[in-house]
């Protein structure tokens, strides 16, 4: 905790002043005035400023209150005008929307539109009755607005009745004759017995005119197109002109009778179209003279009221602005006067606080810069700043004690760092010892496995030497050498040579296998290797351990499984797992089986399972199995780094993950899932030399 670093940041802008320096002549008067003010406690000095501010507030409140009444009256007028204007805007919007709905209903009648018109009608009447009639500025004009609105709504009733008549006329006097005419055209065409009858051409023209008439009549009814009305009348006249021609060409009584009826229905259709035209024209006049004219009268009345509202609002606004300007001038004058008084008093009070604080600040700066020999000035004062100066003096004394404590702490830190360095060295030595132990096990395996074939070779060679000496003596003797003796020597020589070659090849294979394991173990080089061959080589180096204990080893690794990774790391993983099982799972000569299986997992991963049916682990042991320096055989030389090194190799160098499953008395299974192409780096499996061990995150299953 370094207080000097924090305090120096705050105090740098202040130039330290010696506590015992005499004031300059041009500051003596100010210092004397400050001394008089310092006779009053700081809280009373601040309260005096507050009292002046309160006085200013009271004066200003009285002025504002006197003008507030005038402002309130003017503002009430403005607010009332705006409320009235909102009501007029609402009426104008509702009547305009009602007019649009009526036009839409006349063009496309529907129950939904009619219901919406009724709801909007009630809303307009409600606005006039409930809001406009209670508004003091609109109450005198409500009757005129209500009359205009009633005319507007009454015109909608007349218009709706006329619309019902138009619909009846269209259905009974236009569509009904049209259906009869269509049926008569069918009768006339059916009564024609020959395809080349003379009546067929005028009949076709009449049908075409009838079809065009129907289209034009529908268009006129829906869109009020004058062109469509004229087209319907012309097609009707065409049909009437065609009927006498067809009558003269009729060749049977049925056709003649149908043509007579066609003439009557065509005349009725022409009259119906004329009636429909008159009624639609009447509807247009009613829309224009009743609906639109009443709407225009309503809008004109609303606009006239809006003009009156604007004039009244302008007058109220002028009164409001004039009163507000007067109040502002008075408030500004009084504020300036009191501001001068308050500023003068504030400067004097500020000097009575600032000058002593500068002395304390100078002392603090000296303390933070390490000058603890300078005493704090102003400790004899009786006000609050004097108490602060005495507190700073206590702080100076504490800083002196703190400096002494820091020196002691620094010495303790150096001792702790020296002890930590020794601990790091011991830790690295322990890791090296673990590696040397594994190397010693490998060397012992080499010596034991190679000793058997070499020993047999030495025995065969010695026997062969004695047999050669005997044969040489027989050859040099006086007795002639028999063929059977020569054959026996050749046969024994061949057997000895075969045994020598076989045992020496076995020794060479073992040495080559151990050599490859040793090279992979001592060099962290990445290469492609066959997982089956690498497993066999590693197991061969572990056979001495198998012979010392009744442990059976089952291996199931596909021969085609190729890994791009670090064979040395893989060898160290299997060796550590095997030695861990031999030392912990099969203690006291207990028999059992170790199973090593491997299989592809998808296209990119390999799953390796190392399982034993030994003693198993308790849940507490499983939770700490991969922790560094944790071992259950501390008294028997265990270091607790074997499984920790295995976990780091799997997760860091091979880029895989490792899971532990164990049940007490039923065995332990290590499940390793790693990519076929290693994704980790070549970092050592040993803990970091800085002493910060990596504590793994484990996946454990236990019961």
Automatic annotation (TrEMBL):
Keywords: Coiled coil, Kinase, Membrane, Phosphoprotein, Transferase, Transmembrane, Transmembrane helix. InterPro entries: HAMP_dom, HATPase_C_sf, HATPase_dom, His_kinase_dom, Sig_transdc_His_kin-like_C. Residues 1-28, 679-703 are annotated as: Disordered. GO terms for biological process: signal transduction. One of its GO terms (molecular function) is protein histidine kinase activity. It is found in: Membrane. Residues 694-703 have a biased composition (Polar residues). One of its GO terms (cellular component) is membrane. Pfam families: HAMP, HATPase_c. Residues 351-404 form the HAMP domain. Its EC number is 2.7.13.3. The chain crosses the membrane at residues 42-65, 331-353. Its main location: membrane. It catalyses: ATP + protein L-histidine = ADP + protein N-phospho-L-histidine. Residues 445-678 form the Histidine kinase domain. Residues 402-436 form a coiled coil. This is histidine kinase. It comes from Rhodopseudomonas palustris (strain ATCC BAA-98 / CGA009). The lineage of its organism: Bacteria, Pseudomonadati, Pseudomonadota, Alphaproteobacteria, Hyphomicrobiales.
